[in-house]
Amino acid sequence: MSWIEVIGDESWSGELAPLRDRVKDPATDKVDHIMSIHSLNPQALAAHDAVYRSAMRGTGTLRKVDRELIAFIVSDINGCHY
C-alpha cells in the first residue's frame, strides 16, 4: 500500500472515471498502487499510462514477451509484487 494520499479506485469519478478502465488490472478489477498514487492528478495518471503503453509497444527490436519479462525481473529485483 502506498503512503501517499490517494483516492480509492472504487470512488473514482469525474476525470478519473474513464482512466480507471484503462489502468485497472483485469484479473482483480483493481488499480495497482503504482497507478493509484496519481489519483489526485489525473493528468499525471494519463501520462504515466501513456509512457507504460509506449514502453510495452516498443520499437520492434524486442518482442512483447521479452519486454514483459524484463519488466517482471526489474519489479522482482525492486521487491514489487507485479
- Give average pLDDT, whole number: 87
Number of strands: 2
Terminal residue distance: 13 Å
Task: Give the uncertain stretches in residue-range form.
Answer: none
Name some characteristics of this structure.
mainly alpha; 51% helix; 82 residues; two-stranded antiparallel ribbon
Description:
- The protein is mostly helical.
- It has one domain (9-77).
- 51% of the residues lie in helices and 5% in strands.
- The protein has 4 helices and 2 strands.
- The chain has a two-stranded antiparallel ribbon with strand order 1-2.
- A hairpin with a 4-residue loop joins strand 1 and strand 2.
- Helix 1 packs parallel to helix 3.
- The radius of gyration is 14 Å and the shape is globular.
- The two termini are 13 Å apart.
Summary of the model, kept short:
The chain is mainly alpha-helical and 82 residues long. It contains four helices and two strands.
Please describe the topology of this protein:
Blueprint: H1 16-23, E1 24-25, E2 30-31, H2 33-36, H3 42-57, H4 64-77
Antiparallel strand pairs: 1-2
Helix pairs in contact: 1-3
